[in-house]
Amino acid sequence: MTRGRFITFEGGEGAGKSTQVGRLMARLAPVLAGRGQGVIRTREPGGSRGAEIIRNLVVASDAENWSPVTETLLMYASRSDHLENTIRPALAAGDWVVCDRFADSSRAYQGAGGGVAPDFIEQMDRGVVGDDQPDLTLVFDLPVDVGLERAFGRGLFETRFESKGVEFHQRLREGFLRICEAHPQRCVRIDAAGTLEEVEARVWAAVEGRLL
Ligand code: TMP
Known about the structure:
56% of the residues lie in helices and 13% in strands. The protein is of the alpha/beta class and 212 residues long. It binds thymidine-5'-phosphate. Residues 43-45, 59, 75, 101, 105-106, 109-110, 159, 161-162 line the site of thymidine-5'-phosphate.
């Protein structure tokens, strides 16, 4: 059985990731079906029963409940459950996995944004994710003011992370861009400005060029 491929979508708020995950699924599913493979859509935090319980604790809660280190531990607890119960079984069955956010969100939000030491995050990553790193990561990039305006416009500002200040979001963007530069084999920066069709074409070009 050929192992499936693992694709992650990353980026700041309001970049349109979730819409584009849906569009990629619609294009990928028939191509993979022709090869006898499936594709599942999942997300973080969440994506398995236990991880969704942790998501409800973290995403919907008050911004001041936990320190960035504690948030990191909660994110990796959720990731561990998600890998065990959703991601690894799918990849082992030969299916592809498309995940809306993964470990780079911890590096960017808790690390670059929250000031958690990179060594701490990488140590946890080795223990929890290990060799199951994404095959391809699409990093959606937008100027901070554009992203926040889009997120506000969608009425999505109820969550703790979206309500942090503009400086936090600037550190976040820089963090994601640094990850891209540091891992060119795995990461592709996607310019998230433009129409849905334009962004969809950029995503498809990256997936087709790297994995198909
Ligand atoms: P979303 O589902 O709207 O993307 O919301 C999830 C929020 O959780 C988002 O603001 C980013 C944040 N997050 C982290 O801070 N660290 C992580 O590791 C992950 C996966 C998400």
